[in-house]
Amino acid sequence: MIRIDLNGQVAVVTGGSSGIGLATAGLFLRAGASVAICGRDMERLAHAEAELNAQFPDAQLLARRCNVLDAGDVDAFAQAVKARFGRTDMLINNAGQGRVSTFADTSDEAWREELDLKYFSVIRPTRAFLPMLREAAGAAGHAAVVCVNSLLALQPEPHMVATSSARAGVQNLIKSLAVELAPQRVRVNSILIGIVESGQWRRRYAKEAQPGQSWEDWTAELARRKNIPLGRFGKPEEAAQALFYLATTLSSYTTGSHIDVSGGVARHV
User: Are residues 107 and 181 in the same domain?
Assistant: First the structure.
């Protein structure tokens, strides 16, 4: 196994209190990085902080409440990271969720909410942390932004029309940022996820599963109905490993690109 030492480097993970974000924070801590996570829910954030501190007793960890759609919150989070660690080398833009709706039942307000969430959950953290990323790149020769996006960006679904449209726009934004920031040695990439285990899916399982039906059986049946070739949901750790690769020098010659983490659902070549 290839090992990488991130001692002296700082990783920031938005939406880091659960799921993919929490798994990613753990990978960075295991590699020796200092890590800052944020989330909107204080209780969930405190639970994540306790879990990471228990797993990594010597960890350099900062957990702060932050709504990535609030410019003041994001700026305060960036200032807290600078005050605590003095730098940022890697930014993982992970905050966001999907909206189930068709064109016929998506209101103007819903469109605005979805576009605002998808775009500004990338724009505001990137803008706030970019000065530190540029500084780190100037000193070390590299820094990275990695965004968690969805396969919907390339393969839209009619029952998620607003999310699909917004995800496609964000993928375009990521490509533009990669070109603009490449001369400053800040790489920008993304992962495109399909269905990944999450609290949202666990709640749906609790509501929809047949009596006695296990999580494994329920998800396997859903994966079959959704034609996932690998026959199962993805795990947060699997998405986290792709994020780790793109954020570190393991992918030092990769920018403006993406990794498909969808279990084979992608139909495009």
Answer: yes
Residue 189 domain-assigned?
yes
pLDDT of 269 strictly over 90 = no
Beta strand spans in 94-185 (E):
143-150
Query: Rounded to two decimals, what is the model's pTM?
Result: 0.95
Count other Cβ atoms within 10 Å, centred on residue 142. Answer: 18
The DSSP result for 11-64, as a single string, is EEETTTTSHHHHHHHHHHHHTT-EEEEEES-HHHHHHHHHHHHHH-TT--EEEE
Full domain range(s) for residue 219: 198-233
Query: CA-to-CA distance for 158 and 236, rounded, in angstroms?
Result: 25
Provide the 10 A C-beta neighbour count for residue 159. Answer: 12
Q: Residues 146, 14: contact at Cβ < 8 Å?
A: no
Tokens of 173: 């934004």
Tokens of 142: 């590299």
pLDDT in tens, 52-73: 999 999 999 999 999 999 999 9
257 by DSSP, 3-state: which? coil
pLDDT tens track for 3-48: 799 999 999 999 999 999 999 999 999 999 999 999 999 999 999 9
Pair 169, 219 in one domain = no
The reply to whether 19 and 96 lie within a common domain is yes
- Domain with residue 50: its CATH number is 3.40.50.720
